[in-house]
C-alpha cells in the first residue's frame, strides 16, 4: 500500500499543528493550576528557607515597597512597631538568602523603590499601602 505524494506533503503540516495545540492546552492547564496554587498559597506564611531565588527577589522587592509605604504614606492603619520589626527581619533574611551586600541591596532594591515612590507618590501609596495588612499577616 503506497501513500500518495500529497499525503506525505500534508503530514508535516498536521504534526506541528497538533504539537502546537497540545502545547497550548498544556500551557493553559498549567497556568490555571499555577494561578490556583498561588491563590491557595496567598494566605500561608512566607518560608524563606523554601524560597527559590526568583521568589526571594520578588518577595524582597515587595517587602521593601511595603515597608516604604508603611513609613512614608498617610495610611489609615500604619504598620505596628512589632510588625515593622518582623518586616525588617524578613528583609534581612531575604538579603542574606540572596547574598546581597549593602551596596547592591541599596542599588537593586531601595533606589528602585524610592524612584517609584518619587515618580508617583499617590499611585505608590495606593498600590503598596493596601497590601500591608495581608503582607504583614504572612511574615514569619
Topology of helices and strands:
Elements (H helix, E strand, L loop, with lengths): L4 H37 L11 H20 L8 H17 L4 H18 L1 H9 L2 H6 L3
Helix pairs in contact: 2-3, 2-4, 2-5, 4-5
Please give a structural write-up.
By secondary structure, this protein is mainly α. It folds into two domains: 1-41; 48-137. The chain has six helices and no strands. It has helices at 5-41, 53-72, 81-97, 102-119, 121-129, 132-137. Helix 4 crosses helix 5 (121-129). The longest helix has 37 residues, at 5-41. It is globular, with a radius of gyration of 23 Å. Mean pLDDT is 80; it is low at 26-40.
How would you summarize this macromolecular structure in one to three sentences?
Helices cover 76% and strands 0% of the residues.
Count of helical regions: 6
Number of domains: 2
Strands, count: 0
User: What are the low-pLDDT stretches, counting only 5+ consecutive residues below 50?
Assistant: 26-40
- Separation, N- and C-terminal Cα atoms: 69 Å
In terms of structural class, how would the helical and strand content be classed?
A: mainly alpha
How much of the sequence lies in strands comes to under 5%
Q: What shape does the CA trace take?
A: globular
Order of helices and strands: HHHHHH
Helix content: over 70%
If you compute it from the alpha carbons, what radius of gyration comes out, rounded to the nearest whole angstrom?
Answer: 23 Å
Reported for the largest beta sheet, the result is: none
Question: Mean pLDDT, rounded to whole units?
Answer: 80
Amino acid at each position: 500500500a503506497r501513500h500518495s505524494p500529497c499525503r506525505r506533503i500534508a503530514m508535516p503540516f498536521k504534526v506541528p499543528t497538533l504539537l502546537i495545540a497540545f502545547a497550548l492546552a498544556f500551557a493553559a492547564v498549567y497556568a490555571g493550576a499555577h494561578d490556583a496554587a498561588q491563590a491557595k498559597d496567598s494566605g500561608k506564611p512566607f518560608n524563606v528557607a523554601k524560597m527559590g531565588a526568583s521568589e526571594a527577589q520578588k518577595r524582597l522587592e515587595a517587602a521593601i515597597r511595603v515597608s516604604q509605604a508603611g513609613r512614608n504614606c498617610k495610611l489609615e492603619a500604619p504598620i505596628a512597631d512589632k510588625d515593622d520589626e518582623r518586616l525588617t527581619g524578613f528583609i534581612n533574611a531575604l538579603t542574606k538568602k540572596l547574598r546581597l551586600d549593602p551596596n547592591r541591596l541599596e542599588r537593586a532594591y531601595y533606589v528602585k523603590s524610592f524612584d517609584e515612590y518619587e515618580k508617583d507618590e499617590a499611585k505608590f501609596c495606593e498600590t503598596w499601602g493596601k497590601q500591608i495588612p495581608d503582607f504583614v499577616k504572612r511574615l514569619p
